[in-house]
Here is the input.
Amino acid sequence: MDNRDEVSAFLRSRRAKITPEQAGLPVYGQRRVPGLRRGEVAMLAGVSVEYYTRLERGNLGGVSDSVLDALAKALRLDDTERDHLHVLARAANAGPPRVRRRPKAPTMRPSVLRIIEGLHDQPAYVHNNRLDMLAVNTLARALHHEALQQDPANTARYVFLDPRATRFYPDWERVAHNGVGALRVAVAKDPYDRELSNLIGELSTRSDAFRTMWGAHDVHVFTEGIKRFHHPAVGDMELVHETLALPGEGGLSITVYSADPGTPGADALKLLASWAATQEQDAAAAQPGTER
Here is the structure.
């Protein structure tokens, strides 16, 4: 998969978001295009119109980091968008792999599993760049029990294809938008990931909301923040989340949820732990041969 279309659409979408006023440029007469013109971006970036036109047509081959940074400044890209532009350029310069091999599934070190299992009072799980949930601890299993009913469990599929997700996430629009942005970043890093392409194709076909958000070409990297949930058994929960990339693990990351002591979020986590324990007891009692 050539990334020229991806590059072109990203640059055009960023250019369309900036008004001349935001860029400090005078406005004369009626404008036929949203945002800046190509010539205005070229002027702000210090390159010729012909050169910028080449870039916006998707040809980032051989572009220097200084030009990319100048372009990012002209388009007022944030840190995530600027990094995304550099990733697109690296992919363009690398070209397609000479030999197509089926990518190996990343393996988790036993120590990683011990980390999440050792977090008894915090939901924690390991996921890949496709947002597959690969390993969960007890509280994460209780928190995301609806999403985990899928096989494989994937938070993007849950958000866009499971009607329960709009109730589970009170801020569904933001959660959905961030998930799409994370997938967009993943595509730029590995445009030849067939499973990722299949996931995006499936979501685009089955979800109008996903297709619209995907067309916006926004990007997102999960780091930290606050997320709200409405758990069917526990009720409303507001938790802090941290996402940490695992070096050398093929794109795997750990996400952990927590709450400050004495807050409603901490009380909700205690209720979640109690509910999880009850669910495990009921499941054990339902096993054949188990005495009641």
